[in-house]
Amino acid sequence: MTDDTTASTDPEPDDGGPAPILFYFEFSSPYSYFAAHKIDDMARLYDRAVEWRPILLGPLFQSSGNKPLTEQPLKGVYSKHDMARCARFFGLTFDFPDPFPFPAVAAARAVWWLKDQKGEAWGDEEGAHKLALALFDAAYADGRDIRSAEAVVELASGLGVDAHALSTALGEQAVKDRLRVEIERAVEAGVCGAPFFVVDGEPFWGADRLDHVERWLATGGW
Amino acid sequence: MTDDTTASTDPEPDDGGPAPILFYFEFSSPYSYFAAHKIDDMARLYDRAVEWRPILLGPLFQSSGNKPLTEQPLKGVYSKHDMARCARFFGLTFDFPDPFPFPAVAAARAVWWLKDQKGEAWGDEEGAHKLALALFDAAYADGRDIRSAEAVVELASGLGVDAHALSTALGEQAVKDRLRVEIERAVEAGVCGAPFFVVDGEPFWGADRLDHVERWLATGGW
């Protein structure tokens, strides 16, 4: 466990300003894709940073006994309809990925790895946001398959990330452990789905809570 | 099966105006309580009627394999926190019922029965709305137990409903069948949870879709 890891769990901004918004998301989650396109702009309105934290819903589902919404009777049909309608509501391009759900472990590990490359080109939070958004757009707007490590590396490379360094990192135990530990921490912190936001300790689950997140940012709570 | 039952499934307003909003709800559902306090006012803004349709989530959970949100690991803790915060967001009094979830079969049957008493005092939709709201407020604002037929009859009686007629009705097979058939129809119509709204054939699930319902009413869809 590095100091960086500890710092990112209980973020304390260097400038003494308000704490960043914690944004937990899963690549295999259309509602996370929508939120990923909204949260940075919203945060900026209230002078907040956003800390992006990819997780995997699989381990959460094991804890909660749930399975993906789209695979549930009744809710499956509705949720696919709702996802397409939400995309139009948010003004976002949306093609439902096939297959879905899909394993996004390489994508999630790549984002955590990039977050930890502080001081390198494309490293740190900003690069991680850009890579995460690019991965989301590839999967939901461009019909691309982002499941494999090769696909993730190719896409990251196009953004200027060192392909060799990332490719090597994705095979390292420390990088695998980083994601695993962050998912365990998310569960311990009460994260019960994705997207999930924490504003000054207050938890919000779902893209349909973005209006509550915004009011919380504007008012400090109610 | 009566003609009334058929008519209420595919509502055709007498005046040739726009179809009523279908509002499916479960008394043992805090999010349904919130929606019950919002949907009529919203509909009025757009000259719509609302047809209130109580259902029971138990049979839906049997179809979908779900269980109540509050009983799920991880989601249970979050959802209770979210319900209290949503109540404040909506400006509604809210005391979490104990026990919860609770069987609301008598309450649901009473509302369907009252909807069918066309031409009687307190009968038809308007009386059914008032009884349903009174039942919700009793359970969520006044800490009252609305599980038993006796409790439902006492509350309805206070609103002017004929206590003897309702009490007798709650024991009749036809009244029991009415609710059972309506739940089956709801499942066939794709209702996957509560609250659930249908506007001109467009389905919306959850109190957190009220903003989408309102935009749909205002724009005719997107």
Characterise this structure.
The structure is a homodimer of 222-residue chains. With 222 residues, chain A is of the alpha+beta class. In chain A, strand 3 and strand 4 (202-205) form a beta hairpin. Residues 1-13 of chain A have low confidence and may be disordered. Chain A is built from 11 helices and 4 strands; from the N terminus they run H-E-H-H-E-H-H-H-H-H-H-H-E-E-H. The N and C termini of chain A lie far apart (37 Å). The longest helix of chain A is centred in the middle third of the chain and has 17 residues, at 124-140. Chain A has a 4-stranded mixed sheet with strand order 2-1-3-4, with helices on both faces. In chain A, 42% of the residues are buried. In chain A, helix 6 (105-116) packs across helix 10 (173-188) and helix 8 packs antiparallel against helix 9. The first copy, chain A, has helices at residues 3-9, 30-36, 39-45, 57-64, 75-90, 105-116, 124-140, 149-158, 163-169, 173-188, 210-219, and strands spanning 21-25, 50-54, 196-199, 202-205. Helix content of chain A is 53%, strand content 8%. The interface between A and B is medium-sized, with 31 and 31 residues.
